Amino acid sequence: MAFLEVRDLTVAYGAIQGVRGVTFAVEQGQIVSLIGSNGAGKTTTLRTLSGLLRPVSGEVWLDGTPLHRLPAHEILAHGVAHSPEGRRLFARMTVEENLRLGAYTRRDEAGVVADLDRIYDLFPVLGQRRRAKAGLFSGGEQQMLAIGRALMSRPRLLMLDEPSMGLSPIMTQKIFDTVRDLRAEGTTVLLVEQNALAALALSDRAYVIDLGRTTLSGTGAELLADPRVQAAYLGEG
Ligand code: ATP
Questions:
Q1: Residue 178 half-sphere exposure, CB side, CA atoms within 13 Å?
Q2: d(CA 219, CA 164)
Q3: How far is residue 38's CA from residue 48's CA, in Å, rounded to a whole number?
Q4: Which uninterrupted H or E stretch holds 35?
Q5: pLDDT value for 168
Q6: Which atom of ligand 1 is nearest to the CA of 85?
Q7: 40 C-alpha to center of ligand 1: Å?
Q8: How many CB atoms lie within 10 A of CB 73?
Q9: How confident is the prediction for the chain on average, in pLDDT?
Q10: pLDDT score recorded for residue 235
Q11: Which of 14, 98, 122, 170 places its Cα 20 to 30 Å from the Cα of 176?
Q12: What is the pLDDT of residue 236?
């Protein structure tokens, strides 16, 4: 069994089917991307994995533990952290206060302080302005803060929803370089992106989600070379 296994997930919003059969696997230490058009079901999938939505059917297993019936706080305790679409920071709170929210379940203050330092090493701009209000930062810096907050729970699986949204190409590259660094440190990353080109270039493996279903999968390089992916998601063909 893979580190993360998602099997035939279906999720509904009342009568609307958000996800209709999503199946994928993530090996430990890999970056795996879910790509697909607007409304394909990527965000719904991540929200279900973190327990914010309940699946109608299907299973989610992390390292041999079933997560699909657990509430969100228990899923977090099992090591799944989620940096949500749109970042969802607290604009009037400082950088450090936002980061500490990511560690709210932890009681090891020395470990929390060590992890704050680690985030400030990873993103020096946050360290230099740790007492500034989050709302004063640029979009890219806020994305760093959202990723930093998710890392504060010391996740085994880090899920990032559209980290490149609204960012310049240079800032997008910087965020993706950081995701690569996190993999080098052993963090497993599940990435949702509309920027398919950048996501596939970074990914060990990727899955295409179309109309709520996983339709294609392969290594990042295989999907980059796939004419169907080029035509539908890379603006070529
Ligand atoms: P995006 O990148 O735009 O977020 P996505 O691939 O993440 O796209 P989802 O947001 O998961 O797609 O949406 C999947 C489907 O579920 C879409 O048909 C969408 O309209 C529907 N949906 C999403 N959120 C809700 C909601 N709160 N209520 C009703 N339907 C929803």
A1: 26
A2: 21
A3: 18
A4: strand 31-35
A5: 87
A6: 4
A7: 7
A8: 10
A9: 93
A10: 75
A11: 98
A12: 54
- Contacts of residue 24, defined as CB under 8 A and 6 or more positions apart, other chains included, come to 6, 32, 34, 207, 214, 217
pLDDT of residue 237: 42
Exposure string of 159-187, with b = 16+ CB inside 10 Å and e = fewer, is: bbbbbbeebeeebbeebbebbeebbeeeb
Using DSSP's 3-state secondary structure scheme, residue 64 falls into: coil
pLDDT at 230: 92
Q: d(Cα 177, Cα 175) in Å, to the nearest integer?
A: 5
From 35, 43, 49, 160, mutation site for ligand 1 pocket: most ligand atoms within 8 A of C-beta: 43
Ligand 1 centroid from CA 17, angstroms: 9
**Smallest Cα–Cα separation from 99: which of 89, 109, 86?**
89
Which CATH number is 4-234 given?
A: 3.40.50.300
At 212, list the tokens.
């709520």
Angle ∠(130,43,201) on CA atoms, nearest 5:
75
Which residues of the chain register pLDDT less than 70? Answer: 236-237
Beta-strand (E) ranges in 84-204? 157-161, 188-193
* Separation of alpha carbons 9 and 20, rounded Å: 7
Q: Give CA–CA dist 25/34, Å, rounded.
A: 11
**Ramachandran class of 204: left when φ > 0, alpha when ψ lies in -120 to 50, beta otherwise:** alpha
Ligand 1 pocket mutation, candidates 10, 11, 16, criterion most atoms within 8 A of CB? 16
Dihedral angle computed from the Cα positions of residues 151, 156, 161 and 164, in that order, rounded to the nearest 10 degrees: 60
